[in-house]
Design goal:
Distance between the termini of chain B: 70 Å
CATH topology of the largest domain in chain B: Rossmann fold
Number of helices of chain B: 8
Order of helices and strands of chain B: EEEHEHEHEHEEEEEEEHEHEHEEH
Number of domains of chain B: 2
Oligomer: heterodimer
Strand order of the largest sheet of chain B: 9-8-7-10-6-1-4-5-11
Shape of chain B: elongated
Distance between the termini of chain A: 57 Å
Order of helices and strands of chain A: EEEHEHEHEHEEEEHEEEH
CATH topology of chain A: Rossmann fold
Strand order of the largest sheet of chain A: 9-8-7-10-6-1-4-5-11
CATH superfamily of the largest domain in chain B: HUPs
Number of strands of chain A: 13
């Protein structure tokens, strides 16, 4: 079983987001890049499947600041091959362009399964998995939270609202957009990642010229203007607690 | 290209998704600008029942055993044929567990640009919400036929509902022999847990919980308040709470009298499903957390410090 896992880095939303001088994009100097959370789940799902039935897990990621750390962390979890996609991403990368760049690389790897995160929080032109699936002429299922391979088919658990799931059967090879792995992404200690860095190799593949078509052009980016904002309760923790109790009492709920 | 606006009707077990009505409301407004008609596209299901209150000029219904239950593969195949044949100005759907992927596949297949996370389109401009609701982006609506995956926020559900049922036209069944995905069965959520959708008071915990051991503090607070604990996705993904407690796009929509959102940033995935709450009090150490835009009251303190203090204050107020 060969599983290819394309992942992406996204701005860490814990940090303050700043719009750059153009007014159309994030100020990249202020962004801290981290692995997109669903992608972390895709890696975990691939590793779980490898642990269960063997096989090879290949991680691919476009070259953003911090990508080596993401790749080595995946290797420390059990990934076999690490591929960094190089290119001029500073001027903008979108899901269509990345999916097009991934298509020949993934095709050459001849995977049984492609697992990727179901979405990235900064995407404006659709999920990469669905686009890549179509470029690869493979079927796609998103919001996946369980995969079990039986021969040349896989039984997929797809999430719906309300905790409902649907079981679907898909012919392989296929692309799956993972929303959550069958168990939470494992923690790997830094010491283990450091050890892996000494023995693992990051291969590089060039993305070539990016074709950004398929996404709408952004002319303005700004923090949302909220019509209303919460009335802030200030003070020390005990004061805040007392004020919240007063509000709840006022509502007749206590 | 003609000027009609297509809306994909998303339905699950006999229920039309709210986002379909939101998309219909957007389509109505867009159709006024283009001079076209609003056409709801419905695959499978009981057409008369499902389309009775759709605010559309017409429903195009396609019936086939392959379309009886949703799969991205079958829906995308059926839509491909209809889009090629009718060439609409725009095709709208929800940015949901169904629509997001259908839109992606169609964009790659038909070379149509795709705007996801779209809140509204007005006067030839779109606006969309990204980065967990922390940024809004705007741009020109592409001149060519476009796919749009909508999120709530720009229109209300009622705006996409009509008193009179639209005309239903049955469309010929396309060739679906190449479909590679088969629906097998639904799996119900685990039973035996409390139903968070009927609780009057909910204590919602998010990433700020930091550690599963801290859940006890939230349980204690919920018990003091006579409510229950629910969570955003990171907490459920960690296995600290079962999926029955998940509030969000692939979880449940809640409508309590009081929602205490603790350590929850307020990403659209979560906030879309809490708007039915009568009062939201949000606690987060990040002053820029979007949850404060939705909450009536907010406090910029650490939930881990607040929970024991609040439990104590609640017990005191109750005279215990």
């Amino acid at each position: 079983m060969k599983i290819v896992v394309p992942v992406q880095l996204v701005p860490d939303l814990v940090e303050e987001l700043v719009v750059d001088k153009s007014g159309k994009a994030l100020d990249l100097d202020t962004v801290r890049w981290i692995i997109s959370e669903p992608d972390d789940h895709a890696i975990e799902q691939a590793i779980l499947m490898k642990e269960k039935s063997g096989g090879e897990v290949i991680i691919l990621a476009p070259d953003f600041e911090g990508v080596d750390d993401v790749l080595f962390a995946a290797a420390a979890k059990g990934a076999d091959r690490l591929v960094k996609i190089t290119g001029d991403f500073e001027s903008g990368l979108n899901a269509h362009a990345l999916a097009r760049a991934l298509q020949p690389l993934v095709k050459d790897m001849n995977p049984d399964l492609v697992l990727t995160g179901v979405q990235t929080h900064n995407g404006l032109d659709g999920p990469i998995g669905a686009l890549l699936a179509e470029y690869l002429q493979m079927p796609y299922i998103g919001y996946v939270s369980g995969v079990s391979v039986q021969g040349n088919k896989a039984l997929i658990s797809k999430d719906y609202p309300g905790g409902l799931k649907a079981e679907m059967e898909v012919s392989l090879p296929a692309v799956l957009g993972v929303s959550s792995a069958e168990s939470a992404p494992r923690y790997v200690p830094i010491s283990k990642i450091r050890m892996v860095m000494k023995t693992s190799k990051v291969e590089e593949q060039d993305a070539g010229d990016l074709d950004l078509s398929g996404a709408a052009v952004v002319t303005r980016m700004s923090p949302p203007e909220s019509a209303e904002r919460a009335t802030m309760i200030t003070g020390k923790v005990d004061d805040v607690a007392a004020k919240i109790v007063a509000i709840i009492q006022e509502q007749g709920l206590l | 290209m003609n000027q009609d606006i297509f809306v994909l009707v998303e339905h699950l077990r006999g229920q039309v998704a709210d986002i379909t009505y939101v998309a219909l409301a957007q389509a109505q407004s867009l159709a006024v600008e283009t001079g076209g008609k609003v056409i709801a596209v419905l695959f499978g299901g009981n057409a008369v029942e499902l389309s009775k209150n759709l605010a559309a000029d017409m429903v195009l219904h396609v019936e086939s055993p392959v379309l009886a239950e949703y799969t991205c593969d079958a829906y995308a195949s059926a839509l491909t044929g209809l889009i090629k044949e009718k060439s609409p100005r725009a095709v709208l759907m929800g940015d949901t567990t169904m629509g997001a992927e259908v839109a992606g596949v169609l964009s790659a297949r038909l070379g149509m640009p795709l705007i996801s996370n779209c809140v509204s389109i007005k006067g030839g401009k779109f606006s969309a919400k990204i980065c967990g609701g922390k940024m809004m982006v705007e741009g020109e609506l592409p001149a060519e036929p476009v796919l749009v995956a909508m999120v709530p926020g720009g229109f209300r559900v009622e705006q996409g509902q009509a008193a009179k049922a639209p005309e239903i036209k049955t469309s010929p069944v396309p060739d679906l022999s190449g479909v590679r995905v088969a629906f097998k069965q639904y799996v119900e959520p685990e039973g035996g847990d409390i139903d968070i959708t009927t609780q009057k008071i909910l204590v919602g915990v998010g990433r700020g919980l930091q550690n599963g051991d801290n859940l006890e503090l939230a349980e204690e607070l919920a018990e003091a308040l006579g409510g229950a604990v629910c969570a955003s996705r990171p907490v459920v993904d960690q296995g600290w709470l079962p999926t029955t407690r998940l509030v969000g796009k692939s979880g449940k929509a809640i409508k309590p009298k009081l929602y205490l959102a603790l350590g929850i940033s307020g990403a659209p995935e979560h906030t879309e499903t809490i708007t039915g709450s009568e009062m939201i009090i949000a606690v987060n150490t990040d002053p820029a957390a979007p949850i404060f835009d939705l909450a009536k009251y907010g406090a910029e303190v650490d939930m881990l410090d607040l929970m024991p203090a609040l439990s104590e204050a609640v017990r005191k107020a109750k005279g215990g």
